[in-house]
Amino acid sequence: MRYVKASFLFLRKLRFCLSLLFVLLLLSGCGENIKGRLSDFKDASLERVKVMLVDVPFVGRWVKLHPKPSSLYQEVEEAISALKAKGVEKYLPDEFARLEKEWQEAKKLYSARLYLQAEKKLKTLAKEAKDLNEKLDKTLSALKSSALQRYKEKEAELTSRLSSMNEEDRLKLKVYLFYLKSLIEQGRLEEFERELEKDPFRKG
């Protein structure tokens, strides 16, 4: 009985594949752009059929899925984690939101064992993550340069008053300036802005 059910399911899926191929042949005379889309549609459809058939008794042994793109998946996962660690959600929220959406789609394809489709999306994601990382580095570099310029202005302002300070205040000022600069070097730019605004040595 199980054999009959499996055979029936196989024939139904085979009929679907043949119908799909027939439609593709009818449209094969279309332009190159449409051909490319049809090719992607064909690959995606056939892959879904394979995934459905691979667990069917007596049939699955003859079905071979696309190799799992494990290393590419891990590469993209690590790239996205690195972007988050550098504050991409804060500095480039819109660009990262689009990348994150595509990453969720890629994970769904991967979990569904649609490895060919997942691989294509992961390759695109790897490039996009690299480009976004470069853009983030430029953004952070510009912010860091701006913060450093503000630090130098504050340093010049405060050191000009050293001669009028007592020894204890001089030491506090040097510690304060050192702290500000260390925040910039560590990339903690928001903290730098807050501490700069506090300025315990501000007149008045």
Terminal Cα separation, in Å? 92 Å
- Helix segment tally: 8
Query: Helix/strand-derived class?
Result: mainly alpha
Shape: rod-shaped
Largest sheet report: none
- The total domain count is 3
Radius of gyration: 30 Å
Mean pLDDT: 84
Helix content: over 70%
Poorly predicted ranges (pLDDT <50, ≥5 residues)?
A: none
- Residues in β-strands, percent: under 5%
Series of H and E elements? HHHHHHHH
Question: How many β strands by DSSP?
Answer: 0
Can you walk through the features of this model?
The chain folds into three domains: 61 residues, no CATH class; 70 residues; 55 residues. It is mostly helical. The chain contains eight helices and no strands. The model has no long low-confidence stretch (mean pLDDT 84).
Give a quick rundown of the structure.
The chain has 204 residues and is an all-alpha fold. It is built from eight helices and no strands.
Features:
204 residues, mainly alpha, 8 helices
Q: What is the secondary structure topology, with strand pairs?
A:
Layout: H1 2-26, H2 32-53, H3 70-85, H4 88-91, H5 93-111, H6 115-159, H7 167-185, H8 189-198
